[in-house]
Amino acid sequence: MAGVHQPPNAPALVSFPDTDALAHSLAAFILKAQKDSLDKKGRFTIALSGGSLPKMLKGLVDNPSVKWDKWQVFYVDERVVPLDHPDSNHLACTTHLFSKVPIPAENIHPIDPTLLNDLEELSDAYEKDLIREFAQKDAARFPIFDLILLGMGPDGHTASLFPGHELLTEEDRWVAYLDDSPKPPPKRITFTYPVINHALRVVFVAAGKEKVDTLSNILDHPEAGLPAARVKPAHPGQLYWFVDDAAAEKVQYPRTPFKL
Ligand SMILES: O=C1O[C@H](COP(=O)(O)O)[C@@H](O)[C@H](O)[C@H]1O
Q1: Ligand 1 centre from 55 Cα, in Å?
Q2: Ligand 1, CB cutoff 6 Å, lining residues
Q3: In sequence order, which residues have a C-beta less than 8 Å from that of residue 78 and are 6 or more positions away?
Q4: pLDDT above 50 (res 2)
Q5: Which of the residues 43, 124, 137, 191 has the least number of beta carbons within 10 Å of its own beta carbon?
Q6: How far is the CA of 142 from the centre of ligand 1 (A)?
Q7: Residue closest by Cα to atom 3 of ligand 1
Q8: Which residues form the Glucosamine/galactosamine-6-phosphate isomerase domain (predicted)?
Q9: Atom of ligand 1 at shortest distance to CA of 206?
Q10: How far is the centre of ligand 1, averaged over its atoms, from the C-alpha of 40 (Å)?
């Protein structure tokens, strides 16, 4: 999919009438990415966000086409709380997806709950987990995920990369930590831009009228530099926005019809 009259790797904006239609097409998109990845290398690497994203994955439940044993799942960001804490992104993904599907536990990569009191150790350990999965297999400078699913907060943050934060310029680390997130809880770890921007496919999922101004800012005025506007996957990576019509109401950027 590519936007009409847009450069080949310009973001593709796909808008759906409601979140059910969005979730349905998102599942179809994920399955296509899974197939392409399994055909090429026999494994599928995906990174998930928290917030409103996990609920949008319902199209994967009871779906016989998902090859759960081939998935390796990481978290784009995680709040530094116990894994069963209501703020945990892992708990949200478990509640809405993993508890309902036959994915092997070892294919899911949560943060190490024994390291919650040491942010540096915690983010280092998560980076090492990524290195075990990627660097040893692909020998690349940064991990190359088959698919990264992102959310966008009403302030334009994505992952745990917040407007004006020093982590927006981090270029070396794969996983960074912060203890001053403006959105609670304050302590988090997050993928950095180099990791996000090396993925083969990055999909933002954003729905609801509370995101209408931010979505228009990001797509129509990317030069404003909000964190979500800084996601620009390197060639051959492609960026997609899956949104609902409520969130897209003010966006001038051209829509692309959904097509696999
Ligand atoms: O705090 C977070 O917020 C973002 C956006 O959440 P949403 O509820 O507005 O979709 C989310 O993508 C991120 O994973 C999470 O930690």
Answers
A1: 12
A2: 49-53, 76-77, 89, 150-151, 153, 160, 183
A3: 50, 88, 89, 90, 110, 111, 126, 188, 189, 190
A4: no
A5: 137
A6: 23
A7: 51
A8: 17-241
A9: 10
A10: 31
User: Would you say how long the chain is, in residues?
Assistant: 260
CATH number 2.60.120.650 is the correct assignment for the domain at 12-248 = no
Q: Which residue's C-alpha comes closest to atom 9 of ligand 1?
A: 153
What is the arithmetic mean of pLDDT over 94-112? 98
Domain ranges of the chain: 12-248
Residues 6+ apart with CB under 8 A from 226: 155, 156, 157, 163, 214, 217, 218
CB 215 within 8 A of CB 248: yes
Does 6 have pLDDT greater than 80? no
Which of 52, 210, 231 has most ligand 1 atoms within 8 Å of its beta carbon, as the pocket-test mutant? 52
Which ipTM score applies to this complex? 0.99
Q: What one-letter code names the amino acid at 205?
A: V
The pLDDT-based confidence of 252 (bands split at 50, 70, 90) is very high
Helix H segments across 48-151? 89-96, 119-133, 135-138
Mean pLDDT of the chain, nearest integer: 95
Radius of gyration of the chain (CA): 17
Question: What is the average pLDDT across 45-59?
Answer: 98
- Residue 207 is predicted with a pLDDT of 98
pTM score of the predicted model:
0.96
Distance 215 CA to ligand 1 centre (A): 14
Task: Provide the pLDDT for residue 5.
Answer: 58
On whether the CB atoms of residues 53 and 151 are closer than 8 A, the answer is: yes
User: Looking at 81-218, which runs of residues are DSSP E strands?
Assistant: 147-150, 175-178, 188-191, 201-206
